[in-house]
Design goal:
single chain; about 100 residues; 3 helices; mainly alpha
């Protein structure tokens, strides 16, 4: 397995974890009062936006040539960082 394949598999696994976190927050939002529900929904929207950006970068990396995928890593890592920050923010806020 190439370095790119390993990198993509790790990224996909992390995206799956983030999707599970979004699902958990959505379940909590359904049980929350109106004020808290709005906060959950705002945070979930931010997380989904960042997740979508990370997924798009991952799709680009999958289709990139062997030579160009390393150049794409920085874009993916920026999207990754935004998503990680969003997840950490949500988890600390809603624990």
């Amino acid at each position: 397995m190439s370095d790119r394949d390993i990198y993509i598999e790790k990224a996909k696994a992390q995206l799956d974890k983030w999707n599970a976190e979004i699902d958990k927050l959505q379940a909590k939002a359904r049980e929350a009062n109106a004020d808290a529900q709005k906060q959950y929904e705002d945070q979930i929207a931010e997380m989904k936006s960042n997740r979508d950006k990370a997924e798009e970068k991952l799709r680009e990396m999958r289709t990139a040539s062997e030579e160009s995928w390393k150049d794409m890593q920085s874009g993916f890592e920026a999207a990754w960082k935004s998503m990680q920050d969003s997840v950490e923010k949500a988890m600390s806020r809603f624990r």
